[in-house]
Amino acid sequence: MRFMLIEKNGNRAGACEAGAPERARYEQALVRAGVLLASERLRPGAGDAAEVAGFWLIEVKSKEEAAEWVRRSGMNARIELREVLMPDEFAARGGVGCGS
């Protein structure tokens, strides 16, 4: 199963730099465990709302395992966990997946 771990830290000045050491340790743990498929950081936007700072795409055996990776982050950021539907899973649901 694939999951996207979406890092949200708001649009706080310095939030990205302040969390860099924790983020690096977390990402290395994902790599060592062999679960990391992709990871990207995003440039800050102009708004004040809770903002996506980046994401990790992982492949694990269950939602519970993915949730455990969220708990292990050790970062001072909110991480949203979302399952990624593969094309065959999306088709099996009759194209339904948004919000379900």
From TrEMBL:
Pfam families: YCII (PF03795). Residues 1-72 form the YCII-related domain. InterPro entries: Dimeric_a/b-barrel (IPR011008), YCII (IPR005545). Belongs to the YciI family. This is YCII-related domain-containing protein. It comes from Massilia horti.
